[in-house]
Amino acid sequence: MNEDKMHEQRWIEIQFYYLLKDILAMTQDIFKTLDWIDALAISNAYNPTYIKQYAMEFLQTPWVQPSKEEVVVLGHNNRMPIATIKRWTGLHNKTFYNILERSREETPLFMPRYKTEQISEIQNFLTFFEKLRRLGA
């Protein structure tokens, strides 16, 4: 797998993680978060069994959670607004720009934590959620 593909897949995982964190902040309970994932599955856009499993892993397992460096570099490379990256990471401006500068000097390699098939299912969930978010806009 080439570096661009790995970074693309890791970016999908990162977006999933922060969407889950936002949902968890809204529901205030991990089980309500899982119920929310189940409720939206009426769309048949994704497999709720897999998404709930991945959600539990992302929220509870440190090895799948993104590092601040991953969020800054991949977020910047994917044109994520700086304000959003800083909100997600809690980084100060100087630290944010230092990470970007280091990544320009020595390109980091970010590996996805899940297999391609799993990331595809996560992408289905993200795509559905984005469509839902745009309703009425």
Walk me through the structure.
With 137 residues, the chain is mainly alpha-helical. The protein is built from seven helices and no strands. The chain is 72% helix and 0% strand. The N and C termini lie far apart (37 Å).
Describe the structure concisely.
The protein is mainly alpha-helical and 137 residues long.
**Radius of gyration, CA atoms, in whole angstroms:** 15 Å
Task: Spell the H/E element sequence.
Answer: HHHHHHH
The 3D shape can be described as globular
Percent in helix:
over 70%
Structural class: mainly alpha
What's the mean pLDDT score?
Answer: 94
User: How many strand segments?
Assistant: 0
Model regions low in confidence, pLDDT < 50 over at least 5 residues: none
Largest beta-sheet characterization: none
Q: Count of helices?
A: 7
Alpha carbon gap, first and last residue: 37 Å
How is this fold's topology laid out?
Blueprint: H1 3-27, H2 30-40, H3 48-60, H4 68-77, H5 82-89, H6 93-105, H7 116-134
Helix pairs in contact: 1-2, 1-4, 1-7, 2-3, 4-5, 4-6
Which terms would index this structure?
single chain, 137 residues, mainly alpha, 7 helices, 72% helix, 0% strand
